[in-house]
Amino acid sequence: MRDLKWKDAIKKVLEEEKKALHYTVIAELIAEKEYRKSLGATPQDTVSANLTTDINKNKEKSIFAKVDRGYYILRKFLDDKTQLLTDDDDVIINKKEKTKSEKLRIINSFGLYWNRNLVHWKTKPDLLGVQQIGATSVNFKNQIGIYLLHDSRETIYVGQAIEQSLGQRLRHHTVDRLGGRWDRFSWFGFYPVIDNGELKDNLEFENITVQDFGNILEAILIESIEPRQNRKQGNLFYGIEYLQKESPEIKRQKKEQLIRELTDKL
């Protein structure tokens, strides 16, 4: 396994692909090709930050070029410089919108249709997720936000985890009147994730209008229900989706069960 610096790993991926890629795809390819030993908990954010920093610092001398929102290419592969989209252009065109969106980044992480059976509920439950395969796992048990409970057909309950954490609220639903009615859950978290995998819980929000609340609620519904006629994410939705990771205790129990079954057959 090679252990390249982030910038070198990004460059190598773009060199091999010879086309513009979204920064999330670049991060996934770095992991797939094993160009780094450690990806941290937020590899996609790290790739985006490295590209943005290099372009802002080196301008036209940067080896990278931005050709669309989130899409980057090696500058030497550009066919026509008119397709360049610099961060300076973004600021000029959308300065007010960007400033507002940064202040109203409320949904920072989310998980869709996580499996109830992959969580060990008997103790204080660990809600483990990864930004992508190979990334450091993040424990969302202390996350706060909005959650949904699903059965095999539909969403049966929507709740908020504010005064109690997400882990506490979900554990309560394993023993209350809803206990036998749900097998999956989705969640939308307010706390951002930092590179070491911890949750940043010192949140500060600017003034939020009624329209802002409407946009946020719309975004949550679009992401969770996925209506066929909605062709884009809701407004003010900037969260990163996390893939569920099985609880180590559940994995251990499955292994013990398999050993018992094999022993019984002998």
From TrEMBL:
Signal peptide residue numbers: none
Keyword Electron transport in record: no
Keywords: Transcription
Top-level taxon of origin: Bacteria
Pfam family name, one: HARE-HTH
InterPro entries linked to this entry: Asxl_HARE-HTH, GIY-YIG_endonuc
Keyword Transcription annotated: yes
Domain HTH HARE-type: 4-77
The protein's name in its UniProt record: GIY-YIG domain-containing protein
Species in which this protein is naturally found: Psychroflexus planctonicus
